[in-house]
Design a protein that fits this description.
With 310 residues, this protein is α/β, with parallel strands linked by helices. The protein has 2 domains: 258 residues, Ribonuclease Z/Hydroxyacylglutathione hydrolase-like (Metallo-beta-lactamase, Chain A); 36 residues, no CATH class. It is built from 10 helices and 16 strands. The chain has a 7-stranded mixed β-sheet with strand order 6-5-4-3-2-1-16, covered by helices on one side. A 7-stranded mixed β-sheet has the order 7-8-9-12-13-14-15. Strands 10-11 form a two-stranded antiparallel ribbon. Strand 14, helix 10 and strand 15 form a beta-alpha-beta unit. Helix 9 packs parallel to helix 10. The radius of gyration is 22 Å and the shape is globular. The protein starts with a strand and ends in a 5-residue tail after the last strand.
Protein backbone atom coordinates (compact mmCIF):
# COMPACT_ATOMS: atom_id res chain seq x y z
CA UNK A 1 0.00 0.00 0.00
CA UNK A 2 1.29 3.47 -0.86
CA UNK A 3 0.08 6.96 -0.08
CA UNK A 4 0.82 9.90 -2.38
CA UNK A 5 0.50 13.48 -1.15
CA UNK A 6 -0.93 15.44 -4.08
CA UNK A 7 -1.37 18.68 -2.15
CA UNK A 8 -0.57 19.69 1.41
CA UNK A 9 -1.77 23.31 1.55
CA UNK A 10 -4.84 24.88 3.11
CA UNK A 11 -6.95 27.88 2.09
CA UNK A 12 -5.07 28.88 -1.07
CA UNK A 13 -2.53 27.21 -3.37
CA UNK A 14 1.06 28.39 -3.34
CA UNK A 15 3.93 27.72 -5.74
CA UNK A 16 5.00 24.19 -4.88
CA UNK A 17 2.15 23.71 -2.42
CA UNK A 18 -1.14 22.62 -3.93
CA UNK A 19 -4.37 22.29 -1.99
CA UNK A 20 -5.20 19.26 0.11
CA UNK A 21 -5.44 15.95 -1.70
CA UNK A 22 -4.06 12.49 -0.88
CA UNK A 23 -4.09 9.37 -3.04
CA UNK A 24 -3.98 5.86 -1.61
CA UNK A 25 -3.02 2.89 -3.77
CA UNK A 26 -3.95 -0.58 -2.56
CA UNK A 27 -3.69 -3.76 -4.63
CA UNK A 28 -3.64 -1.61 -7.79
CA UNK A 29 -6.84 0.24 -6.88
CA UNK A 30 -6.67 4.00 -6.33
CA UNK A 31 -8.62 5.95 -3.71
CA UNK A 32 -8.55 9.75 -3.55
CA UNK A 33 -9.12 11.64 -0.30
CA UNK A 34 -10.21 15.22 -1.02
CA UNK A 35 -9.52 16.90 -4.33
CA UNK A 36 -8.10 20.37 -3.89
CA UNK A 37 -7.02 22.72 -6.65
CA UNK A 38 -4.09 21.41 -8.77
CA UNK A 39 -4.68 17.76 -7.87
CA UNK A 40 -4.24 16.97 -11.57
CA UNK A 41 -0.78 18.57 -11.60
CA UNK A 42 0.56 16.21 -8.94
CA UNK A 43 -1.09 13.21 -10.58
CA UNK A 44 0.75 14.09 -13.79
CA UNK A 45 4.08 14.68 -12.05
CA UNK A 46 3.84 11.33 -10.27
CA UNK A 47 2.68 9.58 -13.46
CA UNK A 48 -0.34 8.14 -11.65
CA UNK A 49 -3.18 6.76 -13.76
CA UNK A 50 -6.11 8.94 -12.73
CA UNK A 51 -8.56 6.80 -14.70
CA UNK A 52 -7.88 4.00 -12.20
CA UNK A 53 -9.25 6.11 -9.34
CA UNK A 54 -12.29 4.11 -8.29
CA UNK A 55 -13.53 6.17 -5.34
CA UNK A 56 -13.14 9.75 -4.17
CA UNK A 57 -13.76 10.49 -0.48
CA UNK A 58 -14.58 14.12 0.32
CA UNK A 59 -14.22 15.41 3.88
CA UNK A 60 -16.36 18.55 3.41
CA UNK A 61 -17.42 21.08 0.82
CA UNK A 62 -15.12 23.99 1.56
CA UNK A 63 -13.54 25.17 -1.68
CA UNK A 64 -9.96 24.22 -0.84
CA UNK A 65 -11.00 20.56 -0.65
CA UNK A 66 -13.20 20.22 -3.73
CA UNK A 67 -12.12 22.74 -6.39
CA UNK A 68 -10.08 20.07 -8.17
CA UNK A 69 -13.13 17.87 -8.75
CA UNK A 70 -14.63 19.51 -11.89
CA UNK A 71 -11.37 19.28 -13.82
CA UNK A 72 -10.78 15.69 -12.73
CA UNK A 73 -14.30 14.67 -13.75
CA UNK A 74 -13.89 16.25 -17.19
CA UNK A 75 -10.40 14.80 -17.62
CA UNK A 76 -11.73 11.30 -17.02
CA UNK A 77 -13.93 11.69 -20.11
CA UNK A 78 -10.80 12.00 -22.27
CA UNK A 79 -9.76 8.41 -21.62
CA UNK A 80 -11.50 5.09 -22.03
CA UNK A 81 -13.24 4.44 -18.74
CA UNK A 82 -15.60 1.54 -18.32
CA UNK A 83 -15.81 1.39 -14.53
CA UNK A 84 -18.00 3.90 -12.67
CA UNK A 85 -16.47 6.57 -10.47
CA UNK A 86 -17.86 6.67 -6.94
CA UNK A 87 -17.80 9.88 -4.93
CA UNK A 88 -18.57 9.67 -1.21
CA UNK A 89 -18.98 12.69 1.03
CA UNK A 90 -21.18 14.62 3.45
CA UNK A 91 -24.48 16.31 2.50
CA UNK A 92 -24.32 18.79 -0.43
CA UNK A 93 -21.53 17.01 -2.28
CA UNK A 94 -24.10 15.77 -4.80
CA UNK A 95 -25.40 19.32 -5.27
CA UNK A 96 -21.86 20.64 -5.80
CA UNK A 97 -21.15 18.06 -8.50
CA UNK A 98 -24.49 18.53 -10.26
CA UNK A 99 -24.25 22.34 -10.30
CA UNK A 100 -20.77 22.18 -11.81
CA UNK A 101 -21.83 19.62 -14.41
CA UNK A 102 -24.65 21.86 -15.57
CA UNK A 103 -22.82 25.18 -15.42
CA UNK A 104 -19.76 23.86 -17.25
CA UNK A 105 -21.83 21.69 -19.60
CA UNK A 106 -19.54 18.80 -18.83
CA UNK A 107 -19.21 15.97 -21.31
CA UNK A 108 -19.25 12.85 -19.15
CA UNK A 109 -19.11 9.47 -20.88
CA UNK A 110 -18.94 7.25 -17.80
CA UNK A 111 -21.11 6.60 -14.76
CA UNK A 112 -20.67 8.78 -11.69
CA UNK A 113 -22.14 7.41 -8.47
CA UNK A 114 -22.53 9.99 -5.72
CA UNK A 115 -23.17 8.70 -2.20
CA UNK A 116 -23.97 11.24 0.48
CA UNK A 117 -23.33 10.17 4.07
CA UNK A 118 -26.82 10.46 5.51
CA UNK A 119 -25.76 10.93 9.12
CA UNK A 120 -22.27 12.46 9.12
CA UNK A 121 -22.43 12.88 12.91
CA UNK A 122 -22.22 9.12 13.42
CA UNK A 123 -19.32 6.73 12.81
CA UNK A 124 -20.22 4.31 10.03
CA UNK A 125 -18.91 2.05 7.27
CA UNK A 126 -19.32 3.91 3.97
CA UNK A 127 -17.66 1.38 1.69
CA UNK A 128 -16.69 -2.29 1.77
CA UNK A 129 -14.36 -3.97 -0.70
CA UNK A 130 -12.49 -7.22 -0.99
CA UNK A 131 -10.42 -7.47 2.17
CA UNK A 132 -11.05 -3.93 3.46
CA UNK A 133 -13.61 -1.38 4.58
CA UNK A 134 -13.74 2.41 4.79
CA UNK A 135 -15.34 4.17 7.74
CA UNK A 136 -16.29 7.80 8.17
CA UNK A 137 -16.45 9.56 11.52
CA UNK A 138 -17.51 13.07 12.55
CA UNK A 139 -15.09 15.96 12.86
CA UNK A 140 -15.77 19.41 14.31
CA UNK A 141 -15.41 22.18 11.74
CA UNK A 142 -17.34 25.25 10.60
CA UNK A 143 -19.07 23.05 8.02
CA UNK A 144 -20.20 19.45 8.23
CA UNK A 145 -16.96 17.49 7.97
CA UNK A 146 -15.88 13.86 8.31
CA UNK A 147 -12.63 11.94 8.66
CA UNK A 148 -11.96 8.57 7.07
CA UNK A 149 -10.14 5.35 7.85
CA UNK A 150 -9.37 2.53 5.45
CA UNK A 151 -8.84 -0.69 7.37
CA UNK A 152 -7.79 -4.02 5.93
CA UNK A 153 -9.05 -7.33 7.25
CA UNK A 154 -6.50 -9.42 9.12
CA UNK A 155 -4.35 -11.52 6.83
CA UNK A 156 -3.86 -15.26 7.33
CA UNK A 157 -0.77 -16.34 9.18
CA UNK A 158 2.33 -17.75 7.49
CA UNK A 159 1.79 -21.15 5.83
CA UNK A 160 4.27 -23.88 6.85
CA UNK A 161 4.66 -26.41 3.99
CA UNK A 162 6.74 -28.77 6.15
CA UNK A 163 3.89 -29.16 8.64
CA UNK A 164 1.43 -29.83 5.82
CA UNK A 165 3.67 -32.54 4.40
CA UNK A 166 4.14 -34.12 7.83
CA UNK A 167 0.37 -34.37 8.18
CA UNK A 168 0.09 -36.01 4.77
CA UNK A 169 -1.52 -33.11 2.92
CA UNK A 170 -0.58 -33.47 -0.77
CA UNK A 171 0.86 -30.51 -2.63
CA UNK A 172 -1.92 -28.85 -4.63
CA UNK A 173 -5.42 -27.44 -4.08
CA UNK A 174 -5.59 -28.54 -0.44
CA UNK A 175 -2.66 -26.30 0.42
CA UNK A 176 -4.52 -23.37 -1.06
CA UNK A 177 -7.69 -24.24 0.86
CA UNK A 178 -5.80 -24.40 4.13
CA UNK A 179 -4.23 -21.00 3.45
CA UNK A 180 -7.73 -19.62 2.92
CA UNK A 181 -8.78 -20.87 6.35
CA UNK A 182 -10.66 -23.96 5.18
CA UNK A 183 -10.47 -27.42 6.75
CA UNK A 184 -9.46 -30.22 4.37
CA UNK A 185 -10.15 -33.96 4.44
CA UNK A 186 -7.52 -36.46 3.37
CA UNK A 187 -8.23 -39.71 1.49
CA UNK A 188 -8.12 -41.74 4.72
CA UNK A 189 -10.78 -39.50 6.27
CA UNK A 190 -8.39 -37.54 8.46
CA UNK A 191 -9.16 -33.83 8.69
CA UNK A 192 -6.52 -31.13 8.88
CA UNK A 193 -7.33 -27.73 10.34
CA UNK A 194 -5.67 -24.50 9.14
CA UNK A 195 -4.37 -23.86 12.66
CA UNK A 196 -2.22 -27.01 12.33
CA UNK A 197 -0.21 -25.63 9.40
CA UNK A 198 -0.58 -21.85 9.74
CA UNK A 199 0.95 -19.22 11.98
CA UNK A 200 -1.14 -16.66 13.85
CA UNK A 201 -3.15 -14.16 11.82
CA UNK A 202 -1.37 -10.93 10.84
CA UNK A 203 -2.97 -7.56 11.38
CA UNK A 204 -4.21 -5.72 8.31
CA UNK A 205 -3.02 -2.18 7.60
CA UNK A 206 -4.87 1.00 8.53
CA UNK A 207 -4.79 4.43 6.89
CA UNK A 208 -6.49 7.47 8.46
CA UNK A 209 -7.28 10.91 7.06
CA UNK A 210 -8.22 13.81 9.37
CA UNK A 211 -8.84 17.38 8.15
CA UNK A 212 -10.35 20.00 8.97
CA UNK A 213 -11.34 20.01 12.62
CA UNK A 214 -10.87 21.42 16.07
CA UNK A 215 -9.52 19.04 18.69
CA UNK A 216 -12.01 16.67 20.29
CA UNK A 217 -11.42 13.57 22.40
CA UNK A 218 -13.67 11.51 20.09
CA UNK A 219 -11.03 11.62 17.33
CA UNK A 220 -8.14 9.57 18.84
CA UNK A 221 -10.14 6.32 19.20
CA UNK A 222 -11.09 6.51 15.53
CA UNK A 223 -7.49 6.60 14.29
CA UNK A 224 -6.08 4.19 16.88
CA UNK A 225 -3.68 1.66 15.39
CA UNK A 226 -3.09 3.59 12.17
CA UNK A 227 -0.02 2.59 10.22
CA UNK A 228 -0.25 6.04 8.66
CA UNK A 229 -2.28 8.96 9.95
CA UNK A 230 -2.54 11.99 7.67
CA UNK A 231 -3.59 14.82 9.96
CA UNK A 232 -4.15 18.53 9.67
CA UNK A 233 -1.67 20.82 11.44
CA UNK A 234 -2.69 24.23 10.19
CA UNK A 235 -1.17 26.46 12.88
CA UNK A 236 1.58 26.53 15.49
CA UNK A 237 0.72 26.99 19.17
CA UNK A 238 1.18 30.78 19.05
CA UNK A 239 -2.00 30.87 16.94
CA UNK A 240 -4.03 28.54 19.16
CA UNK A 241 -6.78 31.15 19.60
CA UNK A 242 -7.12 31.53 15.83
CA UNK A 243 -7.19 27.75 15.43
CA UNK A 244 -9.98 27.48 17.99
CA UNK A 245 -12.00 30.26 16.35
CA UNK A 246 -11.65 28.77 12.87
CA UNK A 247 -12.01 25.19 14.11
CA UNK A 248 -8.65 23.91 12.98
CA UNK A 249 -5.84 21.99 14.65
CA UNK A 250 -2.50 23.24 15.87
CA UNK A 251 0.54 21.03 15.37
CA UNK A 252 0.60 20.29 19.09
CA UNK A 253 -3.04 19.15 18.98
CA UNK A 254 -2.31 16.92 15.99
CA UNK A 255 0.48 15.33 18.00
CA UNK A 256 -1.89 14.88 20.92
CA UNK A 257 -4.38 13.04 18.70
CA UNK A 258 -1.68 10.61 17.51
CA UNK A 259 -0.30 10.06 21.01
CA UNK A 260 -3.68 9.52 22.65
CA UNK A 261 -4.89 7.25 19.86
CA UNK A 262 -2.32 4.61 20.69
CA UNK A 263 -0.67 2.34 18.14
CA UNK A 264 -0.16 5.04 15.50
CA UNK A 265 3.10 4.27 13.72
CA UNK A 266 3.56 7.48 11.72
CA UNK A 267 1.74 10.78 11.28
CA UNK A 268 2.06 12.98 8.21
CA UNK A 269 1.18 16.63 8.86
CA UNK A 270 -0.86 18.39 6.18
CA UNK A 271 -3.14 21.37 5.38
CA UNK A 272 -0.71 24.10 6.33
CA UNK A 273 -1.75 27.74 6.55
CA UNK A 274 -0.36 29.80 3.63
CA UNK A 275 1.15 32.17 6.20
CA UNK A 276 4.04 29.72 6.61
CA UNK A 277 6.89 29.53 4.12
CA UNK A 278 8.38 26.08 3.59
CA UNK A 279 11.25 27.03 5.88
CA UNK A 280 8.89 28.23 8.60
CA UNK A 281 7.07 24.90 8.58
CA UNK A 282 9.87 23.55 10.77
CA UNK A 283 8.00 25.13 13.70
CA UNK A 284 4.95 22.98 12.86
CA UNK A 285 7.10 19.85 12.66
CA UNK A 286 8.95 20.43 15.91
CA UNK A 287 5.78 21.23 17.90
CA UNK A 288 4.13 18.03 16.69
CA UNK A 289 7.25 15.95 17.34
CA UNK A 290 7.51 17.25 20.87
CA UNK A 291 4.26 15.39 21.54
CA UNK A 292 4.48 12.58 18.98
CA UNK A 293 8.05 11.87 17.77
CA UNK A 294 6.95 9.95 14.65
CA UNK A 295 5.39 13.05 13.06
CA UNK A 296 6.73 14.43 9.78
CA UNK A 297 5.84 17.18 7.32
CA UNK A 298 4.03 16.18 4.15
CA UNK A 299 5.28 17.68 0.90
CA UNK A 300 3.62 17.77 -2.50
CA UNK A 301 4.39 14.64 -4.55
CA UNK A 302 5.65 12.79 -1.46
CA UNK A 303 5.26 9.00 -1.61
CA UNK A 304 4.79 7.10 1.66
CA UNK A 305 4.96 3.31 1.72
CA UNK A 306 2.71 1.43 4.14
CA UNK A 307 4.21 -2.08 4.40
CA UNK A 308 2.52 -5.24 5.56
CA UNK A 309 3.43 -6.64 8.93
CA UNK A 310 5.59 -9.72 8.62
Amino acid sequence: MESFVLGCGGMMPLPGRHLTSVLLRREGELFLFDCGESTQVSLKKLNLKWKKISTIFISHTHADHVTGLPGLLMLSSQVEREEPLTIIGPPRIAEYIEVNRKALEMYINYEIKVIEIEDPYTEQVVMEGEGFRVRSFPLRHSRVCVGYTLEENDRPGVFFPEKAKELGVPVGPMWSQLQKGKTVELEDGTTVEPVQVMGTARRGRKFSFVTDTSYHDSIPPQVSGSDLLICEAMFDSSLADSAKEKKHLTAEQAGKIAREAGGVKRMGLIHFSPRYTNRELSVIKEEARAVFPEAFLCRDQMEITIPNEE
